[in-house]
């Protein structure tokens, strides 16, 4: 799965919202069977998920976040396993142990880890050491509650955990992580600044909880025409430099080498994927 600019959460017990999300502008969906669904609605949520995936043509990747309790997780995984050939993957809520990963791996789908506790953040290397693990997602609200953090407007208190997710993802050659959700659904200027901050921190997309956020996330993580043109020009100049045996050159007063070129390639690749 390519890195999505936006992944929209939708409660599994709300078929009306799921249908709207399928027709919406999010690049991918996460049908939530965990926190968004109260215990008494779990069975109905599984039935709604089955109906959606079985009966509705869907042109975007759909992931499912399964419940964290052992019994509920097992029940969710049975349903997800039956739909596996139509799903992009499964997210494990509150992933903390290798056993959590092994349980989800039995259905054979790509796995995403929701990292929501101090224990999980400190155990990332062991959690990602499985061939089916594809991506890490930081659950900041739960993490703050677990650790006593009180994030301010700039989320500075969460910077270390965010960096750890980005660095472990890169070291394990996972897909670049998608930025954590924001609870802000009214002030889209604040959400835009927050999303741009996550882009600078190494995230390449954002999880969203409202369609308003999707519009902003798509815009932030879509390279502008000027950025794409500049990146392509830089790649052409670098290719010419390599042809004459030079691995670095000066462009607009700045040195360009393979490290700089990698960033340009990412911009061009993102633009080409978005155009598909």
The span between the termini is: 14 Å
Give me the count of strands. 9
CATH fold name of the largest domain: TIM Barrel
Shape: globular
Strand order of the largest sheet: 6-5-4-3-2-1-7
| Average pLDDT reading | 93
Percentage of residues in helical conformation = 40-55%
Task: Assign the CATH architecture of the largest domain.
Answer: Alpha-Beta Barrel
Estimated share of beta-strand residues: 5-15%
CATH superfamily of the largest domain: Phosphoenolpyruvate-binding domains
Q: Supply the number of helical segments.
A: 12
* Class derived from helix and strand content: alpha/beta
Largest pleated sheet: 7 strands, parallel
Element order: H for helix, E for strand = EHEHEHEHEHHEHHHEHHEEH
- The CATH class of the largest domain, by name, is Alpha Beta
